[in-house]
Structure formats: structure tokens, C-alpha cells
């Protein structure tokens, strides 16, 4: 039985002249398009205006991309970007942060809730987490195709040798682990929405998503390589530190829903 997987995939899917289509960019596109279809079905199911899906797509795209880029520059590359601020705009050179993207989405959805739906902030996220989970899985697949953001050496038979990065030892394919927990979050939140109608209990679906995604992310960081050298001597790395507020938020949402349910049952 093979004790490891040799991984040397070209991050460029195909080229037409000087135009290169990367796996990573393609997966972002697929994530947004399928996410758009998912949120469209949700709004249609609840008989809300059809153009809400178009508007939330625009808010999401802007919030995700700007947030992910600024998050990377602030959380992982401030020493460089503080001296080269113009390079923050060079998104094509790479450097996106999932936590920054999450913060960008939170800000964008505040304005979407205020100016479009006129509904509670949590109302939006109870419905949006399914598209976000799918998009997250797509992005992590893109990371795998880029041979980036992987883990420590491992003796497990599914370890990947990332040849393009000069690795000679099998490493944890944490991109796959993260892709899987995004799919678990998608399945769980979809079940809660479609089968249990948990959207009637404000914050439960969103809280479930936060705990699944960010608690798993927190734990996986123990076997992931640091993204930046400054993290080497930290007790918890930047990904873990940024995950803690989201985990606490998820727990608070469950406590809030429990208290409401207790009060209603009296």
C-alpha cells in the first residue's frame, strides 16, 4: 500500500496565449456561482424578492475580496505592506486571508441587511452560511491545486509530498481537511434549514456554522505550517487567535437561543 501521495499538479488549468486560467481562480468563480444559486433558492422558498440574490451576490463579492486582501496585509504581512502600501492593491500577486474575508462579509452583510432586506443581521447569516460553506470548500480545493497552506510532516498514508514546494516528506493535506469541514458545515446547516426549519430560531444556523468551521480551524492549526515567520514563537498562531472570537460568538448564539426557548416554554 502506498505510504504517501506525490503531488505535483500545475496550478494553471489551461492557457490561451498569454491568458492563464488558474485552478484557484476557477474555484473562486465556481464557489460564487453555486453560492448564488443556493441563496436564490432560499429567497425563492421564502418568497422574497428575486433581485435580493443579485444584490447579495454583489455585496458578498466586494466584501469577501476586499476583506480577504486587507486581512492578509494586516494580519500576516503588516511589516511589509506598511512600508509598501501600494502593493496592497496587487491582488494578482496572491495573499488572501480567510479570516479577513469573514470580517469583510460581516461588514458587507451589515449594509445588505440595513439597506436591502431591512431585517435583522442574524436573519441574513442564518441563510447565507450555506453558500459561504460551499465557497469555502472550493477555495480550499484551490489551495490544494496551488500546493499551499498545508501541514506538518506525517506518517499517515494520505500524506502529500508537495513537490512544487521542494518538499521531500509527506505532509498533512490540511487543505483537504478544511475542505471537508466546510462540506460538513454545508450539510449540517442545510439539514437545519430545509429539514428542521431552524431559521425560525434566530441565530441557531449561524451559530452552528461558526462552531463547526472555526473550532475545527482552531484545532487544525496545530498541525499546519505557520503562514508567516513571526508566528514561529507564538503560543497560538494568528489563525487560532482570529478564530477564537468567532467560536465565542457561536457559543453565545446557542446560549441566546436556549434562553429564548426556555422563556417561551414557561
Key structural traits:
mainly alpha; 8 helices; 4 strands; 266 residues; single chain; two-stranded parallel sheet; globular
Element layout with pairings:
Blueprint: E1 5-7, E2 12-16, E3 19-22, H1 23-45, H2 51-75, H3 78-81, H4 98-117, H5 121-145, E4 160-162, H6 174-195, H7 204-220, H8 238-265
Parallel strand pairs: 1-4
Antiparallel strand pairs: 2-3
Helix pairs in contact: 1-2, 1-5, 2-4, 4-5, 5-6, 5-7, 6-7, 7-8
What does this molecule look like?
About 60% of the residues lie in helices and about 5% in strands. It is mostly helical and about 270 residues long. The protein has one domain. The strands form two sheets. Strands 1-4 form a two-stranded parallel ribbon. It has a two-stranded antiparallel ribbon with strand order 2-3. A hairpin with a 2-residue loop joins strand 2 (about 10-15) and strand 3 (about 20). Helix 4 runs antiparallel to helix 5 (about 120-145) and helix 5 (about 120-145) packs parallel to helix 7 (about 205-220). The longest helix has 28 residues, at about 240-265. The mean pLDDT is about 90.
Amino acid at each position: 500500500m502506498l505510504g504517501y501521495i506525490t503531488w505535483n499538479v500545475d496550478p494553471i488549468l489551461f492557457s490561451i496565449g498569454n491568458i492563464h486560467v488558474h485552478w484557484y481562480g476557477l474555484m473562486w468563480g465556481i464557489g460564487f456561482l453555486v453560492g448564488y444559486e443556493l441563496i436564490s433558492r432560499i429567497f425563492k422558498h421564502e418568497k422574497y424578492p428575486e433581485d435580493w440574490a443579485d444584490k447579495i451576490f454583489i455585496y458578498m463579492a466586494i466584501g469577501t475580496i476586499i476583506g480577504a486582501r486587507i486581512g492578509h496585509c494586516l494580519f500576516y504581512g503588516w511589516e511589509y505592506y506598511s512600508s509598501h502600501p501600494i502593493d496592497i492593491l496587487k491582488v494578482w500577486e496572491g495573499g488572501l486571508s480567510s479570516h479577513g474575508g469573514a470580517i469583510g462579509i460581516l461588514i458587507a452583510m451589515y449594509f445588505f441587511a440595513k439597506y436591502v432586506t431591512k431585517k435583522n443581521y442574524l436573519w441574513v447569516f442564518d441563510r447565507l452560511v450555506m453558500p459561504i460553506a460551499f465557497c469555502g470548500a472550493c477555495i480550499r480545493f484551490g489551495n490544494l491545486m496551488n500546493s499551499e497552506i498545508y501541514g506538518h510532516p506525517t506518517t499517515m498514508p494520505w500524506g502529500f509530498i508537495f513537490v512544487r514546494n521542494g518538499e521531500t516528506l509527506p505532509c498533512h493535506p490540511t487543505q483537504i481537511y478544511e475542505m471537508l469541514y466546510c462540506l460538513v458545515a454545508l450539510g449540517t446547516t442545510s439539514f437545519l434549514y430545509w429539514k428542521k426549519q431552524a431559521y425560525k430560531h434566530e441565530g441557531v444556523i449561524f451559530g452552528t456554522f461558526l462552531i463547526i468551521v472555526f473550532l475545527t480551524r482552531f484545532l487544525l492549526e496545530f498541525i499546519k505550517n505557520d503562514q508567516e515567520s513571526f508566528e514561529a514563537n507564538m503560543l497560538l498562531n494568528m489563525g487560532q487567535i482570529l478564530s477564537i472570537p468567532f467560536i465565542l460568538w457561536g457559543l453565545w448564539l446557542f446560549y441566546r437561543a436556549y434562553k429564548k426557548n426556555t422563556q417561551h416554554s414557561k
